[in-house]
UniProtKB/TrEMBL annotation:
<dbReference type="InterPro" id="IPR001214">
    <property type="entry name" value="SET_dom"/>
</dbReference>
<protein>
    <submittedName>
        <fullName>SET domain-containing protein</fullName>
    </submittedName>
</protein>
<dbReference type="InterPro" id="IPR050600">
    <property type="entry name" value="SETD3_SETD6_MTase"/>
</dbReference>
<dbReference type="InterPro" id="IPR044429">
    <property type="entry name" value="SETD4_SET"/>
</dbReference>
<keyword id="KW-0808">Transferase</keyword>
<feature type="domain" description="SET">
    <location>
        <begin position="8"/>
        <end position="273"/>
    </location>
</feature>
<keyword id="KW-0489">Methyltransferase</keyword>
<dbReference type="InterPro" id="IPR046341">
    <property type="entry name" value="SET_dom_sf"/>
</dbReference>
<keyword id="KW-0949">S-adenosyl-L-methionine</keyword>
<dbReference type="GO" id="GO:0032259">
    <property type="term" value="P:methylation"/>
</dbReference>
<dbReference type="GO" id="GO:0016279">
    <property type="term" value="F:protein-lysine N-methyltransferase activity"/>
</dbReference>
Amino acid sequence: MDVSPGGLLVERRDAEGAGKGLFATQSCPRSSTLFTIPAGAMINLRTLSPLYPAAGKLLLTANQMITLHLTLHMPREDGVSHDPGWGPYISTLPQDFESHPVTWAVRNHGGFASPTEEDLLSLLPPTILSALSGRVRLFMADWHAICQYTAAAPNIVSASSRTDLTSSDFRLENHNLLEDCLWAWLNVNTRCIYYQLDSATSAPENMTLCPILDFANHRPNNTHIVAVQPTSLFPPTPGSLGKGRHGLGGDYIFMSSSETPVHKDEELFLRYGSHSNRMLLVEYGFGNLWDEGECRDGKFGGEVDVQDMVEKLFAARGAVGRALKEVLETEGYWGDWTMHSQPVPAHPSYRLISALRLSQLAVDESEGEAFERALERWRAVLWGQEEQVSAENEQAWRDALLLMCERIAETATSGMAAVRERLPRERASGAGWTGWMLGNIERLWREEYEVAEAVASSVRGGVEF
Ligand SMILES: C[S@@+](CC[C@H](N)C(=O)[O-])C[C@H]1O[C@@H](n2cnc3c(N)ncnc32)[C@H](O)[C@@H]1O
């Protein structure tokens, strides 16, 4: 790898409120090559597959394989990983994920969360809690798969650079090793980037840990760093992945943006994606910063998830609600219902409007001619053939939306108050990350509050969505 001053234009430094970050060591023009990571320096399915072959019918996913490798070569007390392959890189990974909500949720699931972790969980909005439950399920499934795999291939564990591990340690109920595996899993989930190894672009194999780049922090607007996806002269053959024959996946080149030049000593950000703050907190353990009033005024793109509330609307209608839910599922409109502060005017998503229209359909029976006729009308609106189901239905769903906004604002007001009560004490103590995390949680509640208020104001103002 070229680490000469001309080949490596970045370095790792402390970044306030974000651990480490990537900084420019010199100024450079637009579209400069900042650094190049050789294919063999990255940890992914291609570089690891030779070390982790199938054990009978058991084959690890990319996520599980990288997690297992990091667990087997986790740095110990001296902070150094003795992995002969990627030891120096693994030694640069964060030492712990104490501030990550998934850590608290996994511990809580196992019954060993600390009082602080329980307290923080109790302060989170319900939408975050349900997203966290999903992450816990995924982690536990991966932990289960890793335990099964190591039981079937105990020699894999003998290759660990850790002297404290034997294959019998990989037991579901071994909390200490589960914690090591969680450290590894969170490294994978917070640091892996897209890297094409399979020709199907959405394949879960298309991910990698990538030294240096993984010190880049996120910002929501323009990215400083552009990843240039390596291509190969040799296209992959069908089913080649996992068998050591990869057409894709060469050296990874990272360039500066074509829009702005880079200034010496500036922090270089990578846009992780257009993620909501809810998703950022659950996946990465932080949220974007924004100032009070910015969501309300449409200057910041706030989002509220209303899954639980809409589900309740359908549940409250009994048999009719169940039949309507089936219709939404068949049409692919069940779930993923949100409200947004941007673009102005603040508005419900199209999916949410469609679900609300259906939830307010004026039908008393869950089948029959009247039911089918009403559905036909709803479908006509969905397909853009009609403007509305009826004037009554239009009024009913807007009323239901307004009521939802009022409830969200009410709950968010109590949520904010509970966090604000704790904030001064935590900030005054000045120690650790809890004050910083409470700030993140307070902003999440405030986002719910401001978006709900803004959407309510759109509804009251008669905005046509
Ligand atoms: C790919 S790593 C970036 C490097 C990381 N800051 C470190 O110290 O190793 C992603 C993690 O960095 C942190 N991070 C990234 N962007 C951030 C931001 N804008 N604000 C706060 N933390 C951020 C989060 O902890 C996230 O999970």
